[in-house]
């Protein structure tokens, strides 16, 4: 009875008392001894890091200074002109310009001498009652490109497409089977060849490209990105001057060359313009001496 009485008289226990241990673990998960040891090591490590960083600071500053000096030296070395190579390049460019000037002067001299020869030849034939022979020689010289000519015809300008433009038509180069590697929108030597063929097909009697008269020995070819006519480099726009009958313009538009040129304009954005001219003057061609052909007896 006494035991039952004691249990009955004992005060009730707090339900939250059993949660005190869990609450303590949540508030202080680390054992006090471990916490003291961690605090001691943290204090010792901080002092050593401060000491080591104090020793490393001068070394770090010295390394940064050396790296900055090396970088400045490299940049200055890159900016210094390569004197020897620049002198060689300037000398080569000067020689090229000089040779080009000499060639141009010689060409003008040859043209002038040929004109004098033609004049003297006509006078000599006229004195010997050879007027018909002189007219025949002039006609042959005009057709072969050996003499300058003038007359009515057409002027065609062909230029590269503006930078960044592109056409939306078909590819005329692939249709023609051209093997040109020219970039899209850039006039190629094969393009000028087809255009010139269209002019001849339309009835042209004399043609010049940028002042270079075309003959049976003329060649239109590429050297890198440059186009050569009579072995002379040309710069765009390429102006094709052709002397021929009044129907030349219409005939060229309907020719294969004219259709091809229209395809270049719509397919690649190449700029073209064609106009008539009643007073064209084409220079004589500088023709190499014949090596195999001889006058018939």
UniProtKB/TrEMBL annotation:
Q: Which family does it belong to?
A: Belongs to the UPF0749 family.
| The UniProt record lists the keyword Transmembrane | yes
Does the keyword section mention Transcription?
no
| Transmembrane residue ranges | 59-80
Stated name of the protein: Uncharacterized protein YlxW (UPF0749 family)
Q: Which organism is it from?
A: Allobranchiibius huperziae
Q: Which residues form a coiled coil?
A: none
Cited InterPro entries:
DUF881
The entry's keywords: Membrane, Transmembrane, Transmembrane helix
Q: Name one Pfam family in it.
A: DUF881
Entry GO CC: plasma membrane
The record's listing under PANTHER family reads: UPF0749 PROTEIN RV1823 (PTHR37313:SF1), UPF0749 PROTEIN RV1825 (PTHR37313)
Spell out the Gene3D superfamilies in the cross-references. Protein of unknown function DUF881 (3.30.70.1880)
Q: Where do the segments described as Disordered lie? A: 163-184
